[in-house]
Amino acid sequence: MRSKSWGESSGSRFPGWQGATRAAGKAIKTEISADIKQKVLLASLEQLSDENEIEPISEPKIDVESLDIPDSGDFHYEFEVEVRPDFELPDYAGIKITRSSGEPLEEEFQAYKEQFLMSYAERISTDDPAAEGDSVICDMTFTHEGRVIREVKGQSLQLMSQLNFQDSALDGFDKLMAGARVGDVREATVMISLQSPVVEMRGEKVTVKFEVTEVQHLQIPTIDKEFCERLGAETEEELDGMLKSSVARQAEYQQRQETRRQVLDKITASADWELPESLVRQQTENALRREMLEMSQAGFTREQIMARENQIRQDALETTRQALKEHFVLDKIATKEGIECQQSDIDRELLMMSFQSGEPVRRIRARLAKSGMIENLEAQLRERKAVDFILENATFEDVPRKPLVKNEQASARFAICGNMGSSLIDDTADEDDSE
């Protein structure tokens, strides 16, 4: 793109002020140059996008400070920008898939009810040794090759079969801490995820030392009128009805995920194009937000969502790489079929999330908007519509549904090696609405 030339004032009617005037003129020119540089860049990028049908998916990388716009002549500059991959859509008409069928069992409901009530349990300090279901407050020290790489104080952890960090996992955590009392120290070794953002720590073994500072029993709340009203129910029977609805939505979520997985596997089988790791890293949080939203919509407990979040983070790069390919394919299908997310779709989803969590719609909307997740919700719903469109024309084979899996994982909401995003679970979501 060719830039316009401009003149420069020379001289002044007041010789005594000539030096100051020149200095001011130079400052004004610098300021004008910066402003013109910005406008020229924006205009040229828009022109480039229009003329070449480029669809950027990230901000262009330009060293603006090093650019020099000449007084006349051509203006040359280079930049890097990630664009949408160009590919042919696979045949997605009449896909054959299996579909889980069957209603949730009473055993699944009872397990969910127990887990749900546990999330409202009162923590009572005790001198007894830690046992299954208890929580321990620990000071944690992480050591690699004899060097302390991280220390975390006062971490509350429930004794479960697996303890998940954002970049590692410890199996047998409940057995490791069984019988522990205040002052006891327990040690274990974990391996850092092969997809940790800290490249030099991938696959490395780290020693974890747990020093117990408190043992807590978890006392399940009594299901009385006050507790039921707190959750928006009049009686325990009405509360059970709400919880059964949540279990049914989780079963639907499970079915949707299974069918979605089959659809996505089939339509992305030919998506063998590579994605740059820089783009994958940028999109990791978006991929996480979208799955957290789906689980929240399906009525999963906070503990279940936290456990899933840490699992995803441990395999963040590969999970995100696959999610991006799925996004590009579904987005192209949605565009081809004229599928859009309407405001009524978002309003209906927020209403369902409010029903599941008891949180007011306006507060959910404000929280999602503040965190940038409202855009994720819109994209998620558009892609869901694209999957539904494919499923409308699919051929199904019904198979028995697998029972819902009880959560047996505790979660430490940090990465051992650091440099990972903060948890997407809102700590204030259970607080009273102060507005």
Can you walk me through this structure?
The chain has 435 residues and is of the alpha+beta class. It has three domains: 1-83, no CATH class; 96-115 and 235-404, Trigger factor, domain 2 (Orthogonal Bundle), CATH 1.10.3120; 121-219, Chitinase A, domain 3, CATH 3.10.50.30. The protein has eleven helices and ten strands. The strands form three sheets. Strands 2, 3, 4, 7 and 8 form a five-stranded antiparallel sheet that branches. A three-stranded mixed sheet has the order 6-5-10, covered by helices on one side. The chain is globular. The relative contact order is 0.14. Residues 1-29 and 420-435 have low confidence and may be disordered.
Question: TL;DR?
Answer:
With 435 residues, the protein is an alpha+beta fold. The protein has helices at 18-52, 106-118, 173-177, 225-230, 236-267, 277-297, 302-314, 316-337, 343-357, 361-371, 373-392, and strands spanning 96-101, 122-126, 135-144, 147-158, 162-164, 169-171, 185-191, 205-219, 395-400, 409-411. The strands form three sheets. Strands 2, 3, 4, 7 and 8 form a five-stranded antiparallel beta sheet that branches. A three-stranded mixed beta sheet has the order 6-5-10, covered by helices on one side.
Descriptive keywords:
435 residues, Trigger factor, domain 2, Chitinase A, domain 3, 3 domains, five-stranded antiparallel sheet, three-stranded mixed sheet, 11 helices, 16% strand, globular, disordered N terminus
